[in-house]
Design goal:
Elements (H helix, E strand, L loop, with lengths): L2 H24 L5 E8 L4 E7 L9 E7 L10 E4 L31 H13 L9 H9 L1 H17 L3
Antiparallel strand pairs: 1-2, 2-3, 3-4
Helix pairs in contact: 3-4
Length: 163
């Protein structure tokens, strides 16, 4: 690929990223609290969203999106900025494991807003066919009260700044 073609590709990519970010911030849905770029020389953004169901309505989650140079042909990398006790969240890296973000399922027409909406569905209805936190998945399936207790204990830690 020539340098001119690579430059043009990057300009198109940045244009799409800017449009998606503008759409997210301009048409801000009630669940998006903040959306900001957190590294000036890289396409890394942080945003806060609130849970939208009875179980999570009092919580504001902070997530980071790292957009690769291959976006939109490769899914962005999503992770929480704090621990979350959930079947589809890695307890060590806080990475969100969503079928939408898997390379084999990724479609270039998928937008960041689509991913955020998918995440909200996943938060409320975990994908138990591919859990990454087996303790959370077991608790969720066997005893939701125990699951919610552990979720709230973890949430108290992240709200207080503990890890």
């Amino acid at each position: 690929m020539s340098a001119a073609a690579a430059t043009h590709g990057r300009i198109v990519q940045l244009s799409r990223i800017r449009k998606e970010i503008a759409d997210l911030t301009k048409n801000k849905r009630a669940f998006i609290k903040e959306f900001r770029k957190c590294e000036p020389c890289r396409d890394i953004f942080q945003f806060k969203i609130s849970g939208d169901t009875e179980l999570y309505k009092d919580f504001v989650f902070t997530l980071t999106i790292d957009i690769s140079l291959d976006y939109p042909f490769r899914a962005p990398f999503f992770k929480f900025s704090h621990p979350v006790f959930h079947p589809n969240v890695d307890p060590k890296s806080y990475e969100l494991c969503s079928p939408t973000l898997l390379q084999e399922n990724w479609k270039p027409e998928t937008t960041m807003e689509d991913i955020i909406l998918n995440w909200l569905v996943l938060l409320n209805e975990p994908d138990l066919s591919r859990p990454i936190n087996f303790e959370a998945a077991t608790d969720y399936m066997k005893d939701k009260a125990v699951y919610m207790k552990k979720f709230h204990e973890t949430a108290k830690k992240w709200k207080s700044g503990e890890k």
